[in-house]
Amino acid sequence: MKISSSIRCFAIFSILLSGLYGCSSNADWNSAFVVWNGDMYEISNEYVEEADEEIGKVTKYSDKEGTYSGNFSNKYRKGTRLYSIKDIKTDEAIAIEEDGKYRKAINNGTYGKK
Hints:
two-stranded parallel ribbon; 18% helix
């Protein structure tokens, strides 16, 4: 009797513990991205020489996984400037101002759809 009671307590404790860690709110996204105009742009390692026009700014930053509205990013802080790239359509790629340089971000489709 005492053994089965100990096993039952251990099982309940294990389930509760795994539930706590399984529901962590920290982001576990595969890549850094910015959302602009409803599309998700994955941040590349490439920089562009010349940005064209400013098209917007990051309006919300979070490293907590979830669904957000506006020009959202899981890497760049609120206020980071977004630009079109000379001779590249914005539905293909955009540039993000980063320390005086412009990092290229590639369109990965509509945000929130898999």
